[in-house]
Amino acid sequence: MEKLKIKNYIRFVDDFVIFGNDKNFLSLCIENITVFLEQYRLNVHRTKANVRKTCNGITFLGYRVLPDKIRLKSDNLIKARRRIKKNRFLLVNGLMTHESFNNSFHAWRGHVKIVTGKLFLSSPFFTEIEKYKKSEINTLISNHQNNC
After folding, report:
1. Given CA atoms 16, 22, 23, 27 in this order, what sign does their dihedral have?
2. Three-state secondary structure along 24-46?
3. Using an 8 Å Cβ cutoff, are 101 and 91 in contact?
4. Tens digit of pLDDT for each residue in 21-80?
């Protein structure tokens, strides 16, 4: 980025977004970055590497970033709901530890908090999961094992 004299960019590990007002300069950046990465046998994802207006928003790290707000991608909400439901099933059936369940759930809460500023979503499903305490989960596990 320094060699290209790019001032406005966001980078996280191997994902980055470059901002600028000159479409030709931005296209040249993509070309130069592509050549640079080829030295390391790495490729630029062609469908994701493009120049577009920021007023239309961009997708970055599971978020939809718009000029006036940041939103979670809707397909990420669907995937998270399925994952939490699956983890809850695994937990209740003794196939997942409470610690693993908690870690997974709290990671998702942190992801949501970046956008909403809240620790949980208002959906009944998420608030139900949020209410669980270790003792309640242990009771669920005990009841399930007694019924087997």
Report:
1. negative
2. HHHHHHHHHHHHHHHCCCCCCCC
3. yes
4. 888 988 998 899 899 889 999 988 878 788 888 788 888 888 888 778 788 888 888 888
